[in-house]
């Protein structure tokens, strides 16, 4: 099945009958919409001369100050607003960094699996992605070192390591404290640049945010941040924090792309941070996501067939699920569409075609009851697929009568047809 | 075959027609259907019809009751639009629609059943067997597949027994690839159709009935770049070369046209259909399957055939609507 078929199967997600565990849409309706609405209205009616005008390519100075306050929550206390470039979501930040550093053929080290939007950016810059193994504690430093040395020995230019250290997309895991230190030591030892992409860091359920990689090294780490998960993805406001020499290049690149980030949404974010209880709002978000994470993990534990495993995120949006041996999440997708449940097949999160036995489940958007129903449907899909594999996996075609190279269409009388029963899968809920 | 654009239908002023175009649905083919429906809607509006585009969802019946349509055009692909169920509901509601009646759709939707009927009517179709998963489970998949290969040979076409857009369809050249092809095909539905693969010229022959009986439009010849006319080849512009009309001798073209009209008639289809067929090197036309709701996207074969016949798609669709307007089936 090809990519276009996967996309086609996704089109049913817009129907309300389908439980989508596929998309990573933040729960924006948990925002105080009236207050935000009045705030934005006032920005236009009272400050339209500024908010509806072009702005600085680097971004609004007031917002850059406030961004430094936000980053301080994760231990980055030495950032200067002059080192911050405001971008159209952190996706643009990643694109800018990639344009500045990558020449065709360069190697990027990235977690395996990795954020699909990053893989797209790397691909469009003709970078080669080398995946590095991770486990429940995130990226494995020894594996980074090995990949780096092997690549360099092969004459490849490794331009940077791209990592999502907190509540990884799609794997859901978080880089542990000792590994953060080990990674920084590695970066220093081997002169390795790290791109730290951190959209979810403030959305932890169990503990205070871990200190960012950038908080430990201000020269070898470029930090990407976003308001998409802590405030609103529709505003498209993100940023990059980079050493001054790099920042210069990023500003030139962003001016070539968009002239300047949208003024109105920058003012909206700055005003929101100035006037609204945004830290409390992040707590509201995390409580909501925690409840949904719990519904997901409880349902998975209760319903998934033996052989299925998954990660247990303590923040963020995603669970990374591994199917029982032999199952392929992409090939199984039509069955899931029939059962009205959607997920993202794992293969999309790898640049090398691996990951077929994985899928990403997002719990950020559906209500807990819908999540439970979605997991119920998914469990039945997996069980049906296991049943199918039980039937066909043991077939030994080597014993067939007609296996020789000369075997083509035999001359036999017409075969009587057998017309099967109605051929729609049905998914009766017999567990409820 | 008429060489001129169709004249407005007698007795019906298309400008007075209120049409609802149904597209979307909750099937694998939703994306294609939305694309077909948008194209139909645009063509109808261009042709002067008062047309509205709607999904087949819980809003549909109340919507049709509140603002009755003179006729519905079903641009739904996959189960909802093609298995007859929605048409049966429209019949119950007394809503006229363009296309085949529910019972005929039910038959055409079941590809093995349609093949049986078509073969009984003397039309060639590749040998086949259609089996549900339970048969393989109960009798042993190895033994059953062994029999299939022994009787039908290789290569084989493995496809879901219902559904369109070639989703789930695969050509299997090597016996060792057969079990995996079965697994991926059964993800689409509980019955798999295994067919002897025929090499030849791939054709799509559209049939329309503008009130004077079914007539075949020029056949469209399909030459996919990859050699396989799969989902990507169908819906990615430039991935497939089409020839309309097909590069056939008059004799073979006439036989292809006769085949499609015969299929349309014996299955009890109405208004429009598209028959997919293969012409083998000996010039014989073999029926593969028929679509009661043919694709109407920019890269679909039905619109190409309409254009090759010298018609305007919008005119043809508007005439079909005008013929059905105000005349429920039962």
Write up what this structure looks like:
The complex is a heterodimer of chains A (432) and B (330). Chain A is an alpha/beta fold and 432 residues long. Chain A folds into 2 domains: 7-29 and 281-419, Aspartate Aminotransferase, domain 1 (Alpha-Beta Complex); 46-275, Aspartate Aminotransferase, domain 2, CATH 3.40.640.10. Chain A is built from 12 helices and 15 strands. Chain A has helices at 3-10, 33-51, 61-72, 89-101, 116-124, 141-153, 177-190, 244-258, 263-275, 278-303, 333-338, 368-392, and strands at 19-20, 84-87, 107-111, 128-132, 134-135, 138-139, 158-163, 194-197, 221-226, 238-241, 309-310, 318-322, 341-342, 344-345, 358-362. In chain A, the strands form 4 sheets. Chain A has a 7-stranded mixed beta sheet, with helices on both faces. A 4-stranded antiparallel beta sheet of chain A has the order 11-12-15-14, covered by helices on one side. Chain A has a two-stranded parallel ribbon with strand order 1-13. With 330 residues, chain B is an alpha+beta fold. Chain B has 3 domains: 2-99 and 318-324, Rossmann fold (3-Layer(aba) Sandwich), CATH 3.40.50; 107-124 and 199-292, D-amino Acid Aminotransferase, Chain A, domain 1, CATH 3.30.470.20; 128-196, Dna Ligase, domain 1. In chain B, strands 9, 10, 11, 12, 13 and 14 form a 6-stranded antiparallel beta sheet that branches. In chain B, strands 2-1-3-4 form a 4-stranded parallel beta sheet, with helices on one face. In chain B, strands 5-8-6-7 form a 4-stranded antiparallel beta sheet. The longest helix of chain B has 17 residues, at 30-46. Residues 1-11 of chain B have low confidence and may be disordered. Chains A and B meet through helix 1, helix 11 and helix 12 of A and helix 1, helix 6, strand 5, helix 7 and helix 8 of B.
């Amino acid at each position: 099945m090809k990519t276009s078929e996967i996309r086609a199967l996704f089109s049913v997600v817009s129907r309300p009958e389908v439980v989508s565990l596929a998309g990573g849409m933040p729960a924006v309706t948990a925002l105080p919409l009236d207050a935000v609405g009045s705030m934005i209205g006032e920005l236009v009616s009272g400050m339209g001369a500024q908010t509806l005008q072009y702005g600085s390519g680097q971004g609004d100075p007031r917002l850059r100050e406030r961004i430094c306050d936000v980053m301080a929550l994760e231990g980055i206390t030495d950032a200067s607003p002059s080192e911050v470039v405001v971008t159209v979501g952190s996706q643009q930040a990643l694109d800018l960094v990639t344009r500045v550093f990558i020449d065709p053929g360069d190697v990027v080290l990235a977690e395996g699996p990795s954020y699909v939007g990053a893989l797209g950016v790397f691909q469009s810059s003709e970078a080669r992605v080398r995946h590095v193994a991770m486990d429940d504690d995130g990226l494995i430093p020894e594996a980074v070192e090995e990949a780096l040395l092997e690549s360099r020995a092969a004459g490849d230019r490794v331009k940077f390591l791209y990592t999502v250290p907190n509540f990884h997309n799609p794997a859901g895991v978080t880089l542990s404290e000792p590994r953060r230190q080990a990674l920084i030591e590695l970066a220093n030892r081997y002169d390795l640049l790290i791109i730290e992409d951190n959209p979810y860091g403030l959305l932890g359920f169990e503990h205070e945010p871990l200190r960012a990689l950038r908080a430990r090294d201000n020269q070898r780490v470029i930090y990407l941040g976003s308001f998409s998960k802590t405030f609103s993805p529709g505003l498209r406001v993100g940023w990059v924090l980079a050493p001054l020499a790099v920042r210069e290049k990023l500003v030139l690149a962003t001016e070539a792309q968009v002239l300047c980030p949208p003024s109105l949404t920058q003012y909206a974010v700055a005003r929101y941070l100035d006037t609204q209880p945004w830290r409390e709002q992040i707590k509201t978000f995390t409580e909501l996501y925690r409840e949904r994470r719990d519904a997901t993990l409880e349902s998975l534990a209760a319903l998934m067939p033996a052989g299925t495993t998954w990660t247990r995120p303590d923040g963020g949006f995603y669970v990374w699920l591994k199917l029982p041996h032999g199952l392929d999440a992409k090939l199984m997708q039509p069955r899931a569409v029939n059962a009205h449940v959607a997920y993202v097949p794992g293969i999309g999160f790898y640049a090398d075609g691996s990951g077929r036995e994985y899928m990403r489940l997002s719990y950020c958007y559906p209500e807990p009851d819908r999540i439970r129903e979605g997991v119920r449907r998914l469990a039945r899909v997996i069980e049906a697929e296991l049943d199918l594999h039980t039937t066909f996996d043991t077939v030994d075609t080597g014993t067939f009568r007609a296996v020789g190279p000369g075997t083509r269409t035999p001359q036999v009388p017409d075969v009587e047809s057998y017309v099967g029963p109605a051929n729609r899968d049905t998914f009766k809920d017999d567990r409820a | 075959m008429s060489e001129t654009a169709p004249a407005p239908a007698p007795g019906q002023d298309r400008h007075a027609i209120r049409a609802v175009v149904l597209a979307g649905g909750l099937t694998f083919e939703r994306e294609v259907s939305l694309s077909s429906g948008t194209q139909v809607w645009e063509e109808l509006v261009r042709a002067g019809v008062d047309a509205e585009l709607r999904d087949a969802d819980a809003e549909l019946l109340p919507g049709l009751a509140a603002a009755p349509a003179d006729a519905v055009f079903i641009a739904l692909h996959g189960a909802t639009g093609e298995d007859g169920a929605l048409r049966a509901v429209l019949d119950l509601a007394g809503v006229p629609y363009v296309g085949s009646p529910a019972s005929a759709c039910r038959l055409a939707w079941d590809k093995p059943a349609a093949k049986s009927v078509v073969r009984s009517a003397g039309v060639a179709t590749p040998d086949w067997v259609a089996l549900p998963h339970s048969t393989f489970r109960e009798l042993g998949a190895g033994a059953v597949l062994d029999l299939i290969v022994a009787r039908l040979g290789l290569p084989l076409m493995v496809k879901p027994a219902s559904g369109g857009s070639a989703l789930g369809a695969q050509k299997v050249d090597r016996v060792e690839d057969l079990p995996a092809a079965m697994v991926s095909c059964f993800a689409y539905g509980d019955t798999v159709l295994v067919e002897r693969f025929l090499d030849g010229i791939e054709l799509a022959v559209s049939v329309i009935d503008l009130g004077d009986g079914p007539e075949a439009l020029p056949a469209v010849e399909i030459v996919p770049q990859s050699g396989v006319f799969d989902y990507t080849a169908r819906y990615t512009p430039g991935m497939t070369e089409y020839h309309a009309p097909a590069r056939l001798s008059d004799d073979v073209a006439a036989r292809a046209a006769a085949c499609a009209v015969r299929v349309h008639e014996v299955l009890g289809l109405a208004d429009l259909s598209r028959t997919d067929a293969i012409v083998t090197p000996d010039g014989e036309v073999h029926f593969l399957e028929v679509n009661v709701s043919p694709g109407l996207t920019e890269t679909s074969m039905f619109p190409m055939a309409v254009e090759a016949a010298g018609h305007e798609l919008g005119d043809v669709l508007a005439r079909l609507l005008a013929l059905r307007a105000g005349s429920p089936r039962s």
